[in-house]
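Why do we bother with a discrete structure alphabet at all? Because it lets us treat a fold like text: something you can write down, compare, and reason about line by line. To make this less abstract, here is a complete entry for ABC-2 type transport system ATP-binding protein. Read it the way you would read a sentence in a foreign language you are learning: slowly, and without expecting to understand everything at once.
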Amino acid sequence: MPSPLSARLRRALPRMTRRRVVTASVVTVLLAGAVVWAVWPESKSFGVRDQVITVRSGPAGDQPVDLDTRFFLPDGASAEHPVPAVLLAHGFGGTKETVRSDAEDLAELGYAVLTYTARGFGRSGGQIHLDNPDYEVRDASRLLDWLAARPDIRTDAAGDPRVGVVGSSYGGGLALMLAAQDPRVDAIVPMITWNDLPRAFLPESTGRSPVDGVFKKGWAGLFFGNGSSVGGPGIPGAGADSADQPGAGADSAGAPDSAGGPDSAGGSGQPGAPGIPGVASGGLDPACGRFAADVCAAYLEIAATGRATEASVELLRRSSPASVLDKIKAPTLLIQGTADTLFPLAEAEANARGIAANGTPVRVAWFTGGHDGGSGPDTDQDRLKLLTAQWLHHYVKGEGATPENSFTWSRIAGFDAMDRGLVATGYRTADYPGLGGQATTPVSVAGPPQRIANPAGGNPAAISSLPLAGAFSSLLDGVAGDLPGQHARFESEPLAEAVDVAGAPTVSIRAASPTGEAVLFVKLYDVDPNGPAALSNGLVAPVRLTGLPTDINAAQPVQVTLPAIVRRFEAGHRLRIVVATSDQGYATPNAPTVYSVALGGGPVTLPTVSGEPIPTTAALWRWVLVGLLAAIVVGLVGVVLVVRRRHRRHDTSVTAEYADTPLVVRQLRKEYADGFVAVSNVDFTVARGQVVGLLGPNGAGKTTTLRVLMGLTQPTAGEIYVFGHRLVPGSPVLSRIGALVEGPGFLPHLSGLENLRAYWRATGRPLADAHFDEALEIAGLGDSVHRKIRTYSHGMRQRLAIAQAMLGLPELLVLDEPTDGLDPPQIAEMRRVLKRYATDGRAVLVSSHLLAEVEQTCTHAVVVNKGTIVAAGPVEEIVGESPSVLFDVTDPAAARDVLDRLEGVRVLPDGDGGLVVDTNGTARSEVVAELVRAGVGVDRVVPRRRLEDAFLALVGENSRGSGDR
């Protein structure tokens, strides 16, 4: 005999059929394959070697410096099969470890990759000269010599390696400077880097020289502090400086310790051999760290005064591609980030224009990351990796078609439903339009002249962005973003339609100052009527104005070019121009001053670019997945069609006796696969004009009954008829039912009215049939119906859900706990609504645990307990005759005297303001007659028994039902 446990297990487990065995086997094989694929170790197709290479640089090319390097060589590379190379440079504060993953990716593509720690960082020697042509750039040129001397590196001529240079930020500047200085470079991919270093750190948005620029003290201080310390954190863009890791050990690349190139170090090939000059002996300048003396002096001077000199600008310009763009002949792929307050899009714009003027192939790509936004979403990373691979394959490997000269960009589109990460949608257009866009959209802004104060010492200061966290500004509005008294606002009317901005907007302002000068910060906000104002990536336009009048009426307009952005301004949003006197990231005048500012006339000009969306790898994989699942879907659809056809054979006819009855439920049973019986035998009718209450304790089977009624689950046995049509999932007759079962499913980003309209459109019925006005009157939400659902309270959602159920005025209304979340006045109004609704041949079925409301609202009741009906009929019949009667009289004291004289009649103590009388068999009419004869007015006579008393008598006070599912 089987044990009780095994018997329970057999009931709990599904019965094993041939179909289930086959399905389980297929699923098991697929899951096993996915797990094996996910955990199978990757086999690297390259060798790695760490070593120190000593190069000679400096103005005369005779100063040795040790560089900590790592070399990746693809398997199979040899003198007989040489491979092209990539020199991969890191960002400021990084090391060779920072770019390790990128180097591995390039090595997998068949490139020999040389990474190294730039002088002044990590374990390399030397001092930081900021990509100076005589130092960092000459160092890189010597590394090209080292590559050219290797027999396994492809060359174009003796000493000329086939090589591309890739780097971001500090490494991107190196790529541009090296291409201008060394003609052996075949292609470059500079990312998130600068064009003019003095302009990047001393920007001025009306076109003035960096000598008059506004010092970007936040970023400059971070750079200087990073270079002054030994082993400090890196500057994002190339990644933070991770701890040095050991290399692959033995020389798996197969190269000799000394390849014979100039100044090759030889030796063990292990990292960490060189020391940091001056550290051991304590000779490191505490004020300058590892910076060269001239760079340190320039920084200290600018930081102390907040202004640059011609000499400091000239020093920084020596490390700027701007001065050598005409010498760059290597095809250039420029990648720049929109979330970048350090090197904004204008830097790539200037590089692109200057290089293209030589006839050199140039391609520009923008993405949603940058120094403030990191590498961006996976969709952006995939696009940029593809562009880089195509560029290097053609111009370095000599393979593949010539890359397009198209311009690509992206903007954040939302969250990925799978991993909840951000998703960026990429776009492409044939030609790079520049920061001016393909077209412009003017938007008028307005506001009176305003007076704003420059705080003493620049404190307190507004916070538009923080280095490394440009998007932080969206969290600061109203906290520390724009400080009261220190900024002026000018706003537009709500936009009539959305505007997709891609480029640098412009605006004209006027200013007056008692000192004749002013430093201002101009910002463009996107103002959501239902949310905070957003400053795109914390980008601001610093302005230094001179020769200003003291009276704003005499001020001349000045055009300000705002930072380039990529943003969609939605319809209904406003544009806000803010002119502020302070910003945490910039140096401002110390003296307190009050400026006057006004608009200069003319609109804000928004540049726009239109393009076609770029398919992402994620989207392509989704299509592949769809293809793999297609066969399963087709099979399931076939099964569903067979089942529905079987049901439809029964649905083609109408049962005559039920044709005019809204709802008939006959012998309904629902049993689950584990043997649990939620509904065992439910049988009731809802006729026209009735409001029927479905009652029962928790777990009695009410919700299961409603789910079967709405076609959400199949009954095990029994039939349901709606106006004579047998009900099955998908029945057309369901369109005659309005329902609120198991809560509403609204879209939080839409308003209440938009949700109702979206629901009605999904039904496919004409808009005129919806009766929105009646439904909205029922909801009683007023103007709140235009607010987004995410701002609604629970009660507001419930009222809107009831209105949704009533759209189209369905002939049968099914509501599950409709008063949940409503306050007493709303409950009373709902009572009246349901009574009015059950007219003109309509009917209502309502499930509720509020027995007093059911008693006052419903004409009929169905009481369910443990899956079975225990009572059904008119409410007054279920309540039944009461042994006690409540009398509402005009004179309770006189009435009590009369009743006390009647034989067998007894006044009970729980009157609650009236008289509760036990008539003890005396006819109520006789009692009333005695009271009237005594001159006592009788207003009301009602049985004392309530529906709650009858309910408890039917189901028992401790009944918990069957555990409804």
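What the structure line is telling us, in plain words: The longest strand covers residues 46-57. The chain has five domains: 46-375, 444-613, 615-651, 656-878, 881-944.
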